[in-house]
Amino acid sequence: MPETLIRSARPEDAGEIVRLVKALAAYENEPPEAVKMTEADVLRDGFAAPRRFEALLAELDGEAVGFALYFHNYSTWEGRSGIYIEDLFVEERARGLGLGRALVTEIACIAKARGCPRVDLWVLHWNPTRDFYHRIGIRHMDEWLPYRMVEPAISRLADGGD
Q1: pTM value?
Q2: Would you kindly state where each structural domain of the chain is located, as residue ranges?
């Protein structure tokens, strides 16, 4: 039986986090160069103040094979912070061992301990893990549409343009 472990990421895991993000990009049919994150970014934003994200690693026989990267958001209606899962990924060779569920379970434990009334995430419409999310109680919200502003629109608006 393979040995599995879910643990908080440490600074020395920065390279593994970047590797896993690139593996996630490949899973989503994106080229590795689409990932701009570097080990320096992980160290700065995940392990130095102000800490912008936290991460969990899933290990199989001592090797990182999955991760969850998350951070706090805030609900004005709840008057409390929640947790937003930015990325959740398990390498294909380690799927079916319960590591994805274990990562989400650990985030649920963190949310409960921190008094967070909700956990949010986005899922690509074609992602087969949507069935898994439904089974564990994560629901698709039809009434909300995601919107995003990126460069150059950010600069144009910030600089007073239309």
Answers
A1: 0.93
A2: 4-158
Provide the 10 A C-beta neighbour count for residue 54: 17
Average pLDDT, consecutive stretches of 10 residues, N- to C-terminus, the chain (162 residues): 95 98 96 96 98 98 98 96 98 96 97 97 90 91 90 95 79
- Asked about 147 being catalytic, the answer comes back as no
Q: Are 69 and 55 in contact (CB under 8 A)?
A: yes
Helices and strands, number each (H, E), in the chain: 5, 5
User: Residues 71, 83: contact at Cβ < 8 Å?
Assistant: yes
Sign of CA dihedral 10, 15, 16, 18: positive
Annotated catalytic residue: which of 27, 74, 84, 133? 133
What is the CATH number that goes with domain 4-158?
3.40.630.30
